[in-house]
Design goal:
The chain is an all-alpha fold. Helices cover 55% and strands 3% of the residues. It has a two-stranded antiparallel ribbon with strand order 1-2. Strand 1 (122-123) and strand 2 (127-128) form a beta hairpin. Helix 1 runs antiparallel to helix 5 and helix 2 runs parallel beside helix 5. The protein starts with 7 loop residues before the first helix and ends with a helix.
Length: 151
Amino acid sequence: MMKNIFDKQVTDEFIKRINKLETSTKPKWGKMSVDQMLAHCNVTYEMVFEQKHKKPNSFTKLILKLFVKNTVVNDTLYKKNGRTAPQFLITDTKNFEAEKKRLIDYLEKTQGLGADYFNGKASHSFGTLSTQEWNNMFYKHIDHHLNQFNV
């Protein structure tokens, strides 16, 4: 079972871990730099709170629901070097401090809105999700990448 991302203590734990990152922090695996990883983690929240990413068409959404959704929302941790969706690929250099601040702000906003806000809310790619599914998606993605960067 994942920790509860809507719990202030859990959010504060993540923020402490994020604040341990430095521009020179190197990954234990993978190709992303620390600034790219932060930008990559922000994409999840951009899809929830911004109108920045194009929504998948009906066919693509069906494929995502059938073949990807369970991996993203279940309580099994991600494996190292897994594949990511195209909108999550960050290949250019990002502003480390700006991406770090955005991620912390998104975490605080999510925690502040609370579990009830997300219960039954439709996701960008997977349709309606339960609070537990939202929690799993948010928690394990950030935890995976913070572990990748050894914080």
